[in-house]
Amino acid sequence: MPCCSSVYSPVGVGPLFQLADRDNSGLIDDKELQGALSSYNQSFSLRTVRLLMYTFTNTNARKIGPKEFIQVFHSLQNWRAMFEKVDRDRSGKIDTNELREALMSLGLAVSPVVLDLLVTKFDKTGGKSKAIEYDNFIECCLTVKGLTEKFKERDTTYSGSATFTYENFMLAVLPFLIA
Protein backbone atom coordinates (compact mmCIF):
# COMPACT_ATOMS: atom_id res chain seq x y z
CA MET A 1 0.00 0.00 0.00
CA PRO A 2 1.53 3.35 -0.93
CA CYS A 3 1.88 5.88 1.82
CA CYS A 4 2.29 9.57 1.71
CA SER A 5 0.98 12.60 3.54
CA SER A 6 -2.23 12.53 1.49
CA VAL A 7 -3.07 9.17 3.06
CA TYR A 8 -4.14 11.01 6.18
CA SER A 9 -6.05 13.74 4.35
CA PRO A 10 -9.76 13.48 3.55
CA VAL A 11 -8.98 13.72 -0.19
CA GLY A 12 -6.85 10.56 -0.10
CA VAL A 13 -9.23 8.55 2.06
CA GLY A 14 -11.86 7.58 -0.57
CA PRO A 15 -9.43 6.05 -3.05
CA LEU A 16 -7.51 4.45 -0.18
CA PHE A 17 -10.72 2.83 1.08
CA GLN A 18 -11.32 1.39 -2.37
CA LEU A 19 -7.75 0.08 -2.52
CA ALA A 20 -8.09 -1.46 0.94
CA ASP A 21 -11.42 -3.12 0.08
CA ARG A 22 -9.75 -6.01 -1.75
CA ASP A 23 -12.92 -8.08 -2.12
CA ASN A 24 -15.03 -5.06 -3.22
CA SER A 25 -17.57 -5.83 -0.49
CA GLY A 26 -18.05 -2.21 0.53
CA LEU A 27 -16.53 -3.04 3.93
CA ILE A 28 -12.96 -3.58 5.01
CA ASP A 29 -11.88 -6.04 7.67
CA ASP A 30 -9.17 -5.68 10.29
CA LYS A 31 -6.38 -7.05 8.09
CA GLU A 32 -7.37 -4.82 5.18
CA LEU A 33 -7.41 -1.81 7.51
CA GLN A 34 -4.04 -2.81 8.93
CA GLY A 35 -2.62 -2.86 5.41
CA ALA A 36 -4.15 0.52 4.58
CA LEU A 37 -2.82 2.12 7.76
CA SER A 38 0.63 0.60 7.66
CA SER A 39 3.32 2.23 5.60
CA TYR A 40 7.02 1.93 4.94
CA ASN A 41 7.86 3.80 8.15
CA GLN A 42 4.87 2.98 10.37
CA SER A 43 3.11 -0.26 11.09
CA PHE A 44 0.08 -0.94 13.22
CA SER A 45 -0.52 -4.12 15.17
CA LEU A 46 -3.80 -5.95 14.62
CA ARG A 47 -4.66 -5.22 18.24
CA THR A 48 -4.33 -1.46 17.70
CA VAL A 49 -6.31 -1.69 14.46
CA ARG A 50 -9.07 -3.65 16.18
CA LEU A 51 -9.28 -1.14 19.03
CA LEU A 52 -9.57 1.68 16.50
CA MET A 53 -12.37 -0.24 14.77
CA TYR A 54 -14.11 -0.89 18.09
CA THR A 55 -13.90 2.81 18.96
CA PHE A 56 -15.93 3.79 15.90
CA THR A 57 -18.33 0.83 15.74
CA ASN A 58 -18.69 -0.15 19.42
CA THR A 59 -18.76 -3.77 18.24
CA ASN A 60 -16.21 -6.49 17.70
CA ALA A 61 -17.51 -7.09 14.16
CA ARG A 62 -14.04 -6.27 12.77
CA LYS A 63 -15.48 -4.68 9.64
CA ILE A 64 -15.96 -1.00 8.87
CA GLY A 65 -17.47 1.03 6.07
CA PRO A 66 -16.26 4.23 4.40
CA LYS A 67 -17.70 6.48 7.14
CA GLU A 68 -15.81 4.70 9.95
CA PHE A 69 -12.72 4.50 7.74
CA ILE A 70 -12.70 8.30 7.43
CA GLN A 71 -13.22 8.61 11.21
CA VAL A 72 -10.24 6.32 11.83
CA PHE A 73 -8.03 8.45 9.57
CA HIS A 74 -9.13 11.68 11.25
CA SER A 75 -8.50 10.16 14.67
CA LEU A 76 -5.01 9.11 13.57
CA GLN A 77 -4.25 12.74 12.73
CA ASN A 78 -5.21 13.67 16.30
CA TRP A 79 -3.23 10.79 17.81
CA ARG A 80 -0.15 11.72 15.77
CA ALA A 81 -0.41 15.37 16.84
CA MET A 82 -0.73 14.38 20.49
CA PHE A 83 2.15 11.90 20.23
CA GLU A 84 4.43 14.50 18.63
CA LYS A 85 3.42 17.12 21.20
CA VAL A 86 4.32 14.96 24.20
CA ASP A 87 7.39 13.30 22.64
CA ARG A 88 9.53 16.25 23.70
CA ASP A 89 12.86 14.52 23.12
CA ARG A 90 11.75 13.37 19.63
CA SER A 91 12.81 9.82 20.42
CA GLY A 92 9.80 8.34 18.63
CA LYS A 93 8.77 6.80 21.93
CA ILE A 94 6.71 7.98 24.89
CA ASP A 95 8.20 7.56 28.36
CA THR A 96 6.29 7.54 31.64
CA ASN A 97 6.24 11.33 32.09
CA GLU A 98 5.20 11.89 28.48
CA LEU A 99 2.42 9.29 28.79
CA ARG A 100 1.18 10.98 31.99
CA GLU A 101 0.97 14.28 30.07
CA ALA A 102 -0.90 12.65 27.16
CA LEU A 103 -3.41 10.94 29.45
CA MET A 104 -3.95 14.15 31.42
CA SER A 105 -4.69 15.99 28.16
CA LEU A 106 -7.42 13.37 27.58
CA GLY A 107 -8.80 14.07 31.06
CA LEU A 108 -7.47 10.78 32.42
CA ALA A 109 -5.55 10.87 35.67
CA VAL A 110 -3.94 7.58 36.65
CA SER A 111 -1.80 6.82 39.66
CA PRO A 112 1.97 6.44 39.30
CA VAL A 113 1.62 2.68 39.92
CA VAL A 114 -0.93 2.33 37.11
CA LEU A 115 1.17 4.56 34.86
CA ASP A 116 4.23 2.35 35.37
CA LEU A 117 2.14 -0.74 34.69
CA LEU A 118 0.81 0.81 31.46
CA VAL A 119 4.29 1.68 30.19
CA THR A 120 5.52 -1.82 30.98
CA LYS A 121 2.48 -3.45 29.36
CA PHE A 122 2.59 -1.41 26.15
CA ASP A 123 6.38 -1.31 25.77
CA LYS A 124 7.29 -3.56 22.82
CA THR A 125 10.47 -4.61 24.63
CA GLY A 126 8.47 -6.04 27.51
CA GLY A 127 9.25 -3.13 29.81
CA LYS A 128 13.00 -2.95 29.20
CA SER A 129 13.01 0.41 27.43
CA LYS A 130 10.28 1.92 29.67
CA ALA A 131 8.80 3.67 26.63
CA ILE A 132 6.06 2.99 24.10
CA GLU A 133 5.96 3.53 20.35
CA TYR A 134 3.24 5.30 18.36
CA ASP A 135 0.90 2.36 17.62
CA ASN A 136 1.15 1.07 21.18
CA PHE A 137 0.59 4.62 22.43
CA ILE A 138 -2.74 4.68 20.57
CA GLU A 139 -3.61 1.23 21.94
CA CYS A 140 -2.73 2.29 25.48
CA CYS A 141 -4.73 5.52 25.33
CA LEU A 142 -7.75 3.84 23.72
CA THR A 143 -7.68 1.13 26.39
CA VAL A 144 -7.43 3.54 29.32
CA LYS A 145 -10.03 5.89 27.80
CA GLY A 146 -12.46 3.06 27.01
CA LEU A 147 -12.14 1.39 30.39
CA THR A 148 -12.51 4.73 32.14
CA GLU A 149 -15.70 5.46 30.18
CA LYS A 150 -17.11 2.03 31.09
CA PHE A 151 -16.27 2.68 34.74
CA LYS A 152 -17.86 6.14 34.67
CA GLU A 153 -21.09 4.65 33.32
CA ARG A 154 -21.36 2.80 36.64
CA ASP A 155 -19.91 5.54 38.87
CA THR A 156 -22.93 7.81 38.54
CA THR A 157 -22.11 9.80 41.68
CA TYR A 158 -18.45 10.35 40.65
CA SER A 159 -17.29 8.82 43.91
CA GLY A 160 -14.48 6.78 42.38
CA SER A 161 -16.41 3.62 43.18
CA ALA A 162 -18.70 1.50 41.05
CA THR A 163 -20.69 -1.70 41.39
CA PHE A 164 -20.64 -4.31 38.65
CA THR A 165 -22.03 -7.77 38.42
CA TYR A 166 -19.39 -10.21 37.29
CA GLU A 167 -21.02 -10.49 33.86
CA ASN A 168 -21.27 -6.71 33.43
CA PHE A 169 -17.65 -6.33 34.47
CA MET A 170 -16.54 -8.94 31.94
CA LEU A 171 -18.66 -7.37 29.20
CA ALA A 172 -17.13 -3.97 29.97
CA VAL A 173 -13.51 -5.11 30.12
CA LEU A 174 -13.17 -7.93 27.61
CA PRO A 175 -13.57 -5.84 24.44
CA PHE A 176 -10.43 -3.94 25.47
CA LEU A 177 -8.47 -7.03 26.41
CA ILE A 178 -9.22 -9.25 23.43
CA ALA A 179 -9.52 -6.69 20.66
Description:
This protein has 179 residues and is mainly alpha-helical. It has a single domain, classed as Recoverin, domain 1, CATH 1.10.238. It has 8 helices and 4 strands. The chain has helices spanning 10-20, 30-37, 46-57, 66-86, 96-105, 112-122, 134-154, 166-177, and strands spanning 28-29, 63-64, 93-95, 131-133. The protein has a two-stranded antiparallel ribbon with strand order 1-2. α2 packs across α3 (46-57) and α7 (134-154) packs antiparallel against α8. The longest helix has 21 residues, at 66-86. It is globular, with a radius of gyration of 17 Å. Mean pLDDT is 87; it is low at 1-10. Residues 16-43, 74-109 form the EF-hand domain. Keywords: Calcium. It holds the Pfam family EF-hand_5. This is EF-hand domain-containing protein. GO terms for molecular function: calcium ion binding.
Short note summarizing the structure:
The protein has 179 residues and is mainly α. It has helices at residues 10-20, 30-37, 46-57, 66-86, 96-105, 112-122, 134-154, 166-177; strands at residues 28-29, 63-64, 93-95, 131-133.
- Mean pLDDT score: 87
Supply the number of helical segments: 8
| Sheet/helix structural class | mainly alpha
Q: Regarding CATH, which class?
A: Mainly Alpha
Shape descriptor reads globular
What is the element string, with H for helices and E for strands?
A: HEHHEHEHHEHH
CATH architecture: Orthogonal Bundle
What is the CA-CA span between the terminal residues? 24 Å
CATH topology: Recoverin, domain 1
| Biggest sheet details | 2 strands, antiparallel
Determine the fraction of residues in helical runs and give it as a percent range.
Answer: 55-70%
Number of domains: 1
